[in-house]
Structures
1.
Amino acid sequence: MGGAPSSEEEEGEVEEEEEEEGEGEEEEKGEEEEEGEEEEEGEEEEEGEEEE
């Protein structure tokens, strides 16, 4: 790499990184929420069977 990159290039790189991080975080949260709901339903079913 020759001289220092222009401010425009730096801004572009930062924006891309922020977008990727934001998407990754959203996907992770969505997966966690789905897993949590499944676990709760499973626990409720197990408890109901035990009570019966």
2.
Amino acid sequence: MAKKVKKSRRPAAQSQDRAQADAGLVLTEAIADYEAAIESRAPSFSAPTVLTLDAKGPSAAIPEGSVVVFVARKGGANLAQIASAVEKGDLAAVEKVHDRLAAAIRRRIEGDKTEPREIDAVPSYSELRYGSKTIARAIFLETPSSVDARVFAYNGGKLTPGKFQLVQYAKSGRGTELETLVVIRPPTLSALEKTILAQVPAAGSEANISVDMAFIGKIVRAVVNAGKNVVQRLAAAATKLTRLVITVDPQLVTVGCTPGCPTGAALMVATVSYVKVGGKAPSDGLPEGFGETNYTLELQKSATAADLLRIRKAMVVEQLYGAKPE
């Protein structure tokens, strides 16, 4: 009887496995380098300005059911203009500033060919906390718009403004005074959602806001020495990319839509991405089954604040991109 010869995997499959392994290794090393960088720096703390936006209509800048945080150097005009528009409930004015910042990012991406730098070369990183929960890491301002904007899903439950805190990690003598604007845009809640959220104690309000919704963004945006390689390898490893297309800047990962995003989407999509790597959705990104109508599932009385938050993530991304990924 002839001996059976075990067929080896196709070269393409082996190449894909190697690319996935490389991507994972680069990300792991980058995260470790980032953690080492901030551990070597003394933290400083500041309290953000927290505003609530009362406005109707879709928005790529501040979606309904989200918290959007803007960090900039103190005294700049951008945050003051956004704050003024938010206080007036003027969504169009917010969008106008958002579009201007997005345009600056697009110009940089199209024209910049500078080489990435080492992680520790960045003079200042910041992290955002809500209570004991770190909701955003690797915030830094060396971006074309001089503003770092992050978006968080929000289920409509209680949030205590005083629990927001910016922690800055600057190299000795190189810190820049920062200001932070937190804009809360509550979702329209059903009676059942209100009932569920009313059961969440004030001490449990951390369950009402997500961590930074980026999969690539929250790490790679700050990992300036690895950003190009990480995204190129992720793209090579992916069996399928959704309608979102990744574009890489040495200091910024931004995402565009195919065939096109809403006018001002570039700024927000810099912090929110959805990519299937190896056919699987990122575990720390959007909910399982995203791309289906999972946010229309009937809620039960046993649902939790976390269930509502998971649903809001899908709805926020739909507002950001104008449509769910295919």
